[in-house]
Amino acid sequence: MTVLILGLLVFLGLHSVRIFADDWRTAMRARLGENGWKGLYSVVSLAGFGLIIWGYSLARQQPVVVWSPPAFMAHIAAPLMMLAFILLVAAYVPGNGIKARLHHPMTLAVKVWALAHLLANGTLHDIILFGSFLVWSVLLFRATRKRDAAAGTVYPPGKWVATLATVVVGFGASVLFAHWLHLTLIGVKPF
Questions:
Q1: Where is the NnrU domain (predicted)?
Q2: Same domain, 173 and 188
């Protein structure tokens, strides 16, 4: 569990710099240059992510069951995951109405992903992993909305074709992941 927690501290700590230390981030970018900052950020992020994966796999070997979710929770988690995939895709499809309306769909995707997994899993390592990401995404979403308001950021209106494409691709990706890739990559068959 220690490796998992260390990975979460490194990964989420770095990804929380804009929430808690935006001035420090600005100073570091000025000192290291844009590419230097991005390089350091990438290396530390990958190290934290690697520790999360390793720590999670270690913790799964000796799970501590905190609660046993009822079977119907998987049926609640499934549509939430579909929504998470659509939100994730919305972060990348230009001109879609979801991003125009919600502004930060990737952060919302992480929030929905974490909530869905908390509902469907009851081991300590799942609660630590998904609970950490849920708390982080709530704080980040609030901070980004505040920053947008302070800067007067205006998002262009979305177009229905881009929005439809976002929903179709997100839905397709969620089906592909749930039925094939989740088992291959994570080792768990969600259904």
A1: 3-190
A2: yes
- CA distance between the termini of the chain: 27
| Total tally of structural domains belonging to the chain | 2
pTM equals 0.92
Q: Which long-range contacts (CB under 8 A, 24 or more apart) does 109-113 make?
A: 109/84, 109/85, 110/84, 110/136, 110/137, 111/137, 111/138, 111/141, 112/80, 112/81, 112/83, 112/84, 112/87, 113/80, 113/81, 113/84
- HEC secondary structure over 106-123: HHHHHHHHHHHHHHHCCE
In this structure, the answer to whether residues 54 and 96 fall within a common structural domain is no
Cα–Cα distance, 57 to 140 (Å, whole number): 27
17 plus 87 within the same structural domain: no
Please list the pLDDT of the chain residue by residue as tens digits (191 residues): 999 999 999 999 999 999 999 899 999 999 999 999 999 999 999 999 999 999 999 999 999 999 999 999 989 999 999 999 999 999 999 999 999 999 999 999 999 999 999 999 999 999 999 999 999 999 999 999 999 999 999 888 999 999 999 999 999 999 999 999 888 888 888 87
Clarify whether residues 68 and 144 are in a common domain. yes
Judge if 2 and 89 occupy the same domain: no
Provide the residue range defining the domain that includes 45: 1-62
* Same domain flag for 36 and 119: no
